[in-house]
Amino acid sequence: MGTFKTFDGVGLAYHGEAGDPLICLPGGPMQASSYLGGLPLGNTVKLDLRGTGESEVAPRETYRVDRQVDDVEALRRHLGLDTIRLLGHSAGGTLAILYATRFPQHVKELVLVAPSPRVVGIDVTDADRRAVAEQRAGEPWFEEAFAAFEDIWAGNMTGENFQKIAPFFYGRWDDAARALDDHPTNDEAAREYYSEGAFDPEQIRKALHILDVPTLFIAGEFDVSLPPNRAREYVELIPAAEFVLQPGAGHFPWLDDPVAFAGAVQRIP
């Protein structure tokens, strides 16, 4: 583990090797980066965002995603790199996009893994999620999990219901998926991450349209967070992006098929 001080004096931690790593930004939002430990990508650096993992807590207002862009820039400088390879998963994809559109001169590769579409103003509807969820009808856990999903769609957004739908986020609901599903999140920071003023989706759309950075966009066939129809809508906003829809994968495609996932990432020009 390495540590450094970011722009406002908060101590941040990262895990991995120096050299020319793929810098990985976790989702959640605001989940400890330890859940990315199984990425089959060799030389990586996984950043614990402020207030998560081994990083120090920070003032609540600094958890907003746009304000964490300077943390990524501080990490780049700490590692002594002129340009970086950057991966963002889920809500971490928002942070990766905000960094890449603010500092395109410092990004040589961008990997977006099941990125949250909120940053570009794409809404995922209940009908979108239902269409994907219904494809899992043959799974032994489907009946209970789908009933919980229907309860959520009816407005009963209880913690118990969200626990029950967890299998829908994975291509396989096995011990590895259960272990990955049990990682800590800073709930206070998560509430602040997407707070008002964090970004202007229309401006981000314009910036992505002219972003001249080799970009890989990976989505899962069974991902209820970013269903394939919305993933395709999203990737059309990024002319520089190559789109990979990983068969049989959910929201964590590296877990469902590490070989296919690593092969896709290694194909970045």
Overall average residue pLDDT: 95
Terminal Cα separation, in Å?
30 Å
Pick out the low-confidence regions.
none
Q: Tally the helices: what do you get?
A: 11
Order of helices and strands: EEEEHEHEHHHHHHEHEHH
Largest β sheet strand count, sense and barrel closure: 8 strands, mixed
Q: What characteristics describe this protein?
A:
269 residues, alpha/beta, Rossmann fold, eight-stranded mixed sheet, globular
Give structural notes.
The protein has helices spanning 69-79, 91-102, 126-133, 142-153, 159-164, 175-180, 187-193, 201-209, 228-235, 253-256, 258-266; strands spanning 2-5, 11-16, 22-25, 44-48, 84-89, 107-113, 215-220, 241-246. The chain starts with a strand and ends with a helix. It has one domain (2-126, 184-266): Alpha/Beta hydrolase fold, catalytic domain (Rossmann fold, 3-Layer(aba) Sandwich). The relative contact order is 0.15. It has eleven helices and eight strands. It is 34% helix and 16% strand. The mean pLDDT is 95. The chain is globular and about 50 Å long. The chain has 269 residues and is α/β, with parallel strands linked by helices. The chain has an eight-stranded mixed sheet with strand order 1-2-4-3-5-6-7-8, sandwiched between helices. Helix 1 packs across helix 2.
